[in-house]
Amino acid sequence: MESKDTKNNVEQHGESAGAKGETHQAGSAADPLAQAAKPKPKAARRPLVFAAVIVCSVIMVGSFLLPSLSAIISGVQNTVKENSATTAAATTDAATTEEAQTTNTQLEQVDSTYSSKTEGLEAKLDETDDASDAATLINLGNTYYTWATQAKTYASTEDEESHVSELYTKAQGYYDRYLALEDASAARVGRIMCQYYLGDTAGAIAALEEFCASVDDYAPAWADLGKMYEDEGETEKATDAYNKALDADPDNKYGQQSTVNSALSALTADASTDDASTGNAE
């Protein structure tokens, strides 16, 4: 009885086990379909979300940094420009200073040369105590006039220009003292030129025109009158005066032909340029 019951139990257990096995296998076979129907876990989408967040962050940071970068670049460019301007200004100042120093040196050389000459002549005039020493007086007038004319080339400051005016005034004074004793064309024209360079332009031109009208064969007077007209922009009058200077001295006795011819050439060139400009404008 026991073995028969036992056998039955075994058989029943086996059938039960088999049924369970079949049920397990059926369940296993159904798992892939169930898994396919299920949504994917959220973990699979996390890398994409993370990447998107990074991209957005980069864009936002870039948008904040761009104005700052622009400001930095602009600041650097401005600094470079300012440095360039400062360098250029420093270079210009240095060149101007160097030029001024060179000019001052040349003026000092001129002063040194002529001061020794005038001192010697004035000492001679004082030693002789002869106010009628016409030769020394005209020599002093000419020397001061030449000194003033050369110094005028290098004068660049108010003090230096004032120094030039003092020289012309001294020259004019010695010419007056000489003319009180004797009359000479050179002294009269020299005095008029001092008057011109001291600022009395109209008076000097009138005086020289009067002189040339009375002494028309003195070439230096015509040359000086041509220079005055040229300075005043009177081209036709300047040309006429220069030509009269050449006519009055065909042998170049006064050594002015080269200077006068150069002045005439410059006037002719200027006139040609003006004519061309007028033609183009029309």
Strand count: 0
The CATH architecture category of the domain at 106-199 equals Alpha Horseshoe
CATH-defined fold name of the domain at 106-199:
Serine Threonine Protein Phosphatase 5, Tetratricopeptide repeat
Element-by-element helix/strand order: HHHHHHHHH
SS-derived structural category? mainly alpha
Most strands sheet: none
Shape: flat
Distance between the termini: 147 Å
Sheet-strand content, in percent, reads under 5%
Level-1 CATH class name of the domain at 106-199: Mainly Alpha
Q: How helical, in percent, are the residues?
A: over 70%
Mean pLDDT: 78
Report the C-alpha radius of gyration, rounded: 54 Å
Describe the protein:
The protein is built from nine helices and no strands. The chain has 282 residues and is mostly helical. Among the domains are: 106-199, Serine Threonine Protein Phosphatase 5, Tetratricopeptide repeat (Alpha Horseshoe); 217-270, Alpha Horseshoe (Serine Threonine Protein Phosphatase 5, Tetratricopeptide repeat). Helix 4 runs antiparallel to helix 5 and helix 5 (185-197) packs parallel to helix 7. The termini are far apart.
Q: What labels describe this entry?
A:
Serine Threonine Protein Phosphatase 5, Tetratricopeptide repeat; mainly alpha
In short:
By secondary structure, this protein is mainly alpha-helical.
List the helices and strands and how they pair.
Blueprint (H helix, E strand, L loop, with lengths): L1 H36 L8 H83 L5 H21 L3 H22 L5 H13 L3 H14 L4 H13 L3 H14 L8 H25 L1
